[in-house]
Amino acid sequence: MKKILFVTSEAHPLIKTGGLADISGSLPKALAELGQDARIIMPNYQAIKTTEEVRYLSTIYVYNCAVNILETRLPGTNVIVWLVDFPEFFNFPGNPYVDEHGKSWANNAERFTLFCRVTVEVAMNRSYLDWKPDIVHCNDWQSGLVPALLSLEYSRPATVFTIHNMAYQGIFPSSTYRSLNLPGQLWNSNGIEFHDMLSFLKGGLIYSDRITTVSPTYAKEIQTADFGYGLEGLLSHRKDFLSGIINGIDVDHWNPETDINISQPFNRMTLYKKALNKTALQEKLSLPVNKNIPVFGLISRLVEQKGIDLILKCLPEMLTHPLQFVLLGSGNKSFEQRLYNFAEGHPDKISITIGYDEALAHLIEAGSDIFLMPSRFEPCGLNQIYSQRYGTVPVVRKTGGLADTVVDTVPKTLEDNTATGLVFNEASPGALMEAIKRALILYSHPKTWKRLQTNGMRKDFSWTKSAQQYMTLYSHL
Ligand code: ADP
Ligand code: GLC
Questions:
Q1: Is residue 198 part of a domain?
Q2: I need a surface site. Which of 11, 32, 326, 417 has the fewest CB within 10 A?
Q3: How many helices (H) and strands (E) does the chain have?
Q4: Is the CB of 18 under 6 A from ligand 1?
Q5: Residues 214, 296: one domain?
Q6: Nearest bound ligand to the CA of residue 331
Q7: Domain with 406 in it: what CATH number?
Q8: Distances (CA, A) of 60 to 120, 153, 200, 335
């Protein structure tokens, strides 16, 4: 049995802004089910909601800050969660990274440096918790200083750093670096310095014993200039220590047979009941109720990465077809406004919900026929996987985890029952529109469509295989 400290800035259902929370809420649980002692450490944000007991464990002093360590459980599991409690940094409304108005917290470097320093104290068993991990498994830039700081410790645990998204690097001016009082040895071009800036992400990439990312294709992509943001050289230099492990999903939480957020449970055998969810979705969003019209769904952070501009360019042509389009998302204000403006003229065909709504996300997965995910890049992506579980056929661009989890529909894959969606190559409105039209044609052939749906629903997206891959990785350290 290994002791694993899982370091993350968000975990579902405690707090979530995106897929990292889904993974942090499900991978430690899967590791625990495999007999490992996996514990989570994360900041104690004001927005954390839990029905579980939260108790005080200890207070430690880190650079003149008195920080409390609180303990709770990942709701509904036995997985221990340690909350780094420092109200001056974390007890504010808003999300982990931005304030109520969507503006990055001005002191993010200080906030996550403190989080990393406290994590190091916990990892070195200097926090009165009487527990020392074998492995410290860090995730994304917010935890990037942990492998860097641990590299300076004697008799330290092994470190793994998982990249969920290279687009977010935690880069700050060198003046910020100086004000943080970080050890001078780390500040060089083979360290956390990146073009005279402080890079949290680089701390993870340089100093961790192993690097992983969340799909095999993305592991290759980030070694190229198009996806590496200037770190491709470093990543290919460390390629023997870099691997891609595809994300699993929480198959209990995303299960159409037991989902309490949807109108009518269903499975592969009772697929006809999916139509009742479509009706419920149309009613909820005030769209004309029509079970024959194809409904396209999209749930996403509204950012460049997700190809929202491609959707905006395709919408006029999409509207020339009999279909409905349902979108749930939030993010970039200009995308939000343009989507709203477009929807205004077409209330019978388009529904745009700006905001974050967990229950609606489940109903969209259950009630849509087709799911759109035209990402420009996608380290793994989860909604295309949830879609397949819910018999909703994904239309995706061939990149990252989308390429690894969706099988395009061509005569061969139809014949051998591996086809689960529509995959297109080029990040252009024309290529997306062509894939949408292919989906519409397939939708008009109910027998073929049902095959695509059941092929997707039959696939095993649980953590079993991937958690095992992490265990193998840990065992080599
Ligand atoms: P990313 O982490 O890049 O945002 P993923 O596909 O890995 O992309 O995960 C996104 C997760 O966040 C999914 O669980 C998705 O359902 C959820 N999500 C995104 N936007 C919203 C929203 N507006 N409301 C509810 N859930 C959302
Ligand atoms: C990131 C990526 C997404 C991935 C998620 C969880 O947010 O953008 O593709 O699924 O992390 O690993």
A1: yes
A2: 417
A3: 19, 18
A4: yes
A5: no
A6: 1
A7: 3.40.50.2000
A8: 12, 18, 23, 44
Cα 379 to ligand 2 centroid, rounded to whole Å:
5
Return the residue whose CA atom lies nearest to atom 5 of ligand 2: 19
Strand extents, DSSP E, 49-150: 55-62, 65-73, 80-85, 135-139
pLDDT, tens digit only, all 477 positions of the chain? 999 999 999 999 999 999 999 999 999 999 999 999 999 999 999 999 899 999 999 999 999 899 999 999 999 999 999 999 999 999 988 889 988 777 889 999 999 999 999 999 999 999 999 999 999 999 999 999 999 999 999 999 999 999 999 999 999 999 999 999 999 999 999 999 999 999 999 999 999 999 999 999 999 999 999 999 999 999 999 999 999 999 999 999 999 999 999 999 999 999 999 999 999 999 999 999 999 999 999 999 999 999 999 999 999 999 999 999 999 999 999 999 999 999 999 999 999 999 999 999 999 999 999 999 999 999 999 999 999 999 999 999 999 999 999 999 999 999 999 999 999 999 999 999 999 999 999 999 999 999 999 999 999 999 999 999 999 999 999
What is the residue with the minimal CA distance to atom 1 of ligand 2?
A: 164
Instruction: Indicate the pTM of the whole model.
Output: 0.97
Residue 380's nearest CA partner among 171, 163, 170, 92 is 163
What is the domain extent for residue 236?
A: 3-248+464-475
DSSP SS3 for 413: helix
How many separate domains does the chain show? 2
Residue 56 sits in the same domain as residue 196 = yes
Residue nearest ligand 1's atom 17 by CA: 18
